[in-house]
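pls read this protein.

:::
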Amino acid sequence: MGGTLLLLFVVVLSAAAPQVVRAAKPIPNSYLVGVDEGDNSIGILQNHIVETVNKHPNAGWTAAHNPYFANYTIAQFKHILGVKPTPQNVLTDIPTKTYSRSLKLPKEFDARSQWSQCSTIGNILEQGHCGSCWVFGAVECLQDRFCIHMNMSVALSVNDLLACCGFMCGDGCDGGYPIMAWRYFVQNGVVTDECDPYFDQVGCKHPGCEPAYPTPVCEKKCKVQNQVWQEKKHFSVNAYRINSNPHDIMSEIYKNGPVEVAFTVYEDFAHYKSGVYKHITGSIMGGHAVKLIGWGTSDAGEDYWLLANQWNRGWGDDGYFKIIRGKNECGIEEDVVAGMPSTKNIVINDGGSSGTAVV
């Protein structure tokens, strides 16, 4: 009888306990990592990290004091790492793409040169003090794919997704889920940047906005007169993940264009200047999302991924970075997401120019 009561107590206790959301992958974010008291006063850039990396015989990359983070504290740096671990239940109906191993891929690939007519691929943007990397990676990839597959040059709105997706995507400037950004494109579409421009172009310089801007209010109204919100919507056909095997990731980029990836960021990554990054020193800071645009092999024989960041050109290699490929460094190959552009709401003229129309 005592055993039965004990079992019943455990069952009731389990049912009453809050459900734990399991991360689909080991990508932390700043809110899980936590902010220590010293994080608000200690700068993210540290001489000892630069020295440790540059003296390391097998680092493969060069560290420096990137101007972009000259005035950033550790707490501020953590805040802009806005990828939250995706709840497992969200991924149950998300398809995962794989490719035939018979597909021949080049040893080096750069989407900027492959689709040189698409200037958006080479854009380096700035997310400011908002944890909106999960939005930037998605919006940038979708606009690139509109150019690649529909010959459309369009700048899409980060602000629309950031402000209007709500809890489905996460917490706006306090971080979100990359795959849900792509689902938003399917269900709601995204307007042009001209209609709803990004709110943090100045990088949060005025008093009262530290450590970050709050998430902007969703207004669903174009800032430009005579533009109608729904008429400016651009959609994605689907939202999917790409299998973590490097061949599948490379095949997806080769056939369809840049993809959004999320990975774990350590302190030393803030100091990246050039070369093929791998984690050398420092603590976990959070999860970050960027745009993966190509791959290659360094002179030293290291296979790498080529990525565009959104920390302006004052960080890294003119805004870009390379990270070692094929070893799932920092989880870079675990969470790759994308979608294909839709003709919904789009009118493409025979002459190659494009416009929008409500359908």
